[in-house]
Each structure stands twice: as C-alpha cells, then as structure tokens.
Amino acid sequence: MKHEVSEVITDVEQTKIDDQYWKVLVVDDRFSVQKATGLLLKKMSYAGRGFKILESYTINETKQILMSNDDIALIILDVHLEGDDVGLLLLNFIRTELQNENTRVILRTGYPTSFPEKSITKKYHIDGCLFEEETSFSKLEFEIIGAIQTYRKMLSINEYLERFAGSVAFEMKNSLNMFGLNFSAIKNELFHQKIKYPNTTTDSIVNIINRGLHFSNRSEMIVDLMLKNIKNESINKSDFKVINMGRVVSQAFEDFAYTNIDRKEKVELDLKQDFEFLGDENSLVYVLFNLFKNALFYLVNKPDGKIQIRLENGDDWNKLYFKDNGIGIPEDELIGVFEGYRSFSFTEGRGLGLAFCKRIMRDFGGDVTCQSDYGEWTQFVLAFPKVS
Q1: Cβ distance 103 to 75 under 8 Å?
Q2: Residue 145: CA atoms inside 13 Å, Cβ hemisphere, count?
Q3: DSSP category for residue 103
Q4: Half-sphere exposure (Cβ direction) of 341: Cα atoms closer than 13 Å
Q5: What span, in angstroms and rounded, lies between the C-alpha atoms of 323 and 305?
Q6: Of all helices (H) and strands (E), which one includes residue 50?
Q7: Do residues 118 and 89 lie in contact, with contact meaning Cβ atoms separated by under 8 Å?
Q8: What is the rounded CA–CA span in Å between residue 188 and residue 194?
Q9: How far apart are CA 25 and CA 174, in angstroms?
Q10: Are 78 and 87 in contact, with CB atoms under 8 Å apart?
C-alpha cells in the first residue's frame, strides 16, 4: 500500500534516487516498532531522495551512530527507551554535547498524560511528539515530511551563511592586512627618522603603532575563529600549548578595555590562584571577548555595574569565574544560552558567540556553564582540566 502526504510523498520505485538518501535514525528497543517504521520509510521519498534507515536499540549504540554520522536528517526516538525517560538524556547529548542543532527529532511515547510535551519541545527544539495510541501511519508520515523539510531548509540557510561569512571574512582580513602593512610602514619610517634625528623622541608613537599591529594580528585570528564558528568547525588541537591563564586574562582585559576608562573601572580581577591550561590563546581570548561584550551590554548604563573575574586552582579542575551584576537571564532562557544561531532566538546583546565558546571549551577538554539570578547577576564558570 502506498501512503501520501499532500501529494509530496511518492513511492521510491517511481523516483530516481541516484543513491541519495535522507538518513533517519530510529531509536527504539522494540523489534516490531523498528520493522514497522522501516517498512513505512521504504515506501516514502521526498525531493528526489529516498530514506536510509539506521536502527538503534540502546542509548550507547545511538551515541556511537551519532558520533559517526554527521548527516542524519531525522531521529525518531522512543522517550522511554531503557525506562524512566532515559531517552530524554539523549536529547541533551545531541543538542548540548554534540552541539547538533540541525538534526531534527520526533519523539514517541506511550504515556501522553505524564509527558511534559511543551517544556521538552522548547528546551530541545523537537519537531513533533507522537502518542502511540493516537498515531496512525499517515500522522507519522506527516511528521516525518515536516521534519525533513525543516532539515533541508536549515542546510540551505547554513550553506548560504557559510558562503556569506566566507566573503565577509575575506574582505575583513584584506582590510586588517592593509592596516598591518601601513602600521609597519609607519614604524619603519620612524626608525629611519630616529637615525636621522637621534634626539627625537618617538617611543610613545612606536608604542601606539605596536598596539595597532597587535590588534590587527589579534583581530585577523579572531576573524578566522568566527569563520570556524559559522562553519561549525572545531579548533586545531595539534597547535595546543601550555599557557598561563593569568597572563591571558590580563592581556584580554587590557585589549578589550584599551583607551576606555569606564570599561576598566567596571572590571575587578582576582588572579591570585593562577594556573596553566592546555589550549589555544586566541581561542580563549575569543571566549573572554564574548563574555566581556555580553556583560558590558547590560552594564553600560548601570553606575554600580561590575564584572568580577576570579581564578580558582582546584584539585581536579581549575576554574575561571566570570560574574556580572547586570539584569541576569530569565530561567526559561537560561537553558538555551549556549545554543547556536541556527535555532536560538536570542535577546539583543547575547547569543551568537556563546555556542562557539562552548565548543572551544569542549575542545580544551573542559566546559562552560551558566548560572543566573534574574534581576541580580549572571555567572559563567569555565572549567579547565589540570595540566600534568
């Protein structure tokens, strides 16, 4: 029997697939459900592609499949896999651990009265929730096609953003390179002027030029990081070095607050419990710049606004605490503060960089978490593994 949804679905036999498929991962520990879902998907196609079914019966097996396949379009997930809503933990793994916002998720549950559909939908951005007693094949088809349509649109948007970001980054790097060349030319001219007129004092001008060169180089590297963010790429771990945290924090603070006295007065540094970390300096500066930017956005008109940065040398983990006394983050927004731009409806002043900050900290082998008391304060905690 052939099933159709708004004349979008056709039999695979009637469509030229050319070995292109939408990958659908079915996560359910019931053999009968797996086979029934597989039979349905084999009868379907969308936009000239059939469906390739991946079966998983356990959480661990599912994680392995997800880590090995970054092109899964849809997951049909049994919420009660392995009992007690363990399946929901998988959603956290997908959205938080893997930072995967593209793959769509449809949940299945046999207990509609006890399932918090609205809160789960909002927290994990799922595309549908099917209650087994009420679900027909046509309903399942409708949900699947809707999810695949969303996945396809997201891929198109991401591809456009990558091309756009690439062209912008290219132009910015060209401009930054010209700034650097001009600074170098001025510095070279001052050097010759110093030789010609040895009594002339040029130290202050040379210092400004050196700062300009430093900012040009730093900015060019941050543009590269922003491009990696757009492309959803990780940083190169082969370039990691052991770096002093106190020095990086101090330099990032000086760079961000350079020539701005108000910014400097709002920041308190406590670097007594200094430590070292294994990572990339520019990547951490990118993280700190994002935290500075977000915090100062809400402190600019607050006379008693403060940012407190404190280092803590622990037994197993070293930590950096970044706290501000701004307006805080509402509880219902706090759960999505590290979500990517692809699906996160952020408030002005927060957002785009925090997802990449999370990815950077994961690449360092650590993590970043956020705590907040709405109306009072917000604190980011950056955890770094001890350097042996």
Answers
A1: yes
A2: 21
A3: S
A4: 16
A5: 11
A6: strand 50-56
A7: no
A8: 10
A9: 44
A10: yes
Two tokens at 249? 């924090």
State percent of the chain over pLDDT 90: 31
pLDDT tens for each residue of 115-153: 555 566 666 677 778 876 666 778 888 889 999 999 998
239: confidence class by pLDDT, cuts 50, 70, 90: confident
Could you give the CA distance from residue 268 to residue 270 in angstroms, rounded to a whole number? 7
Nearest 5°: phi and psi at 340? -75, 170
Residue 361: helix, strand or coil by DSSP?
A: helix
Residue whose structure tokens are 């370039």: 239
| Best CA proximity match to 244, nearest among 274, 217, 204 | 274
First CA to last CA distance, the chain: 63
Least confident of 60-64, 106-110, 218-222, 348-352: 348-352
- DSSP-derived secondary structure for 157-209: HHHHHHHHHHHHHHHHHHHHHHHHHHHHHHHHHHHHHHHHSTT---HHHHHHH
Task: Report residue 28: phi and psi, to 5°.
Answer: -160, 135
- Rounded-to-5 percentages of helix, strand, coil across the chain: 50, 20, 30
Please give the Cα distance from 23 to 45 (Å, whole number).
11
Higher pLDDT, 360 or 217: 360
DSSP, collapsed to helix, strand or coil, labels residue 130 as: strand
Tokens read off for 364: 């360092």
Predicted TM-score (pTM) of this structure = 0.62
CA separation for the pair 84, 206 (Å, rounded): 66
pLDDT digits (tens, 9 = 90+) for 315-340: 889 999 999 998 888 887 787 788 75
**Which residue do the tokens 């094949």 mark?**
137
The owner of tokens 């604190």 is 379
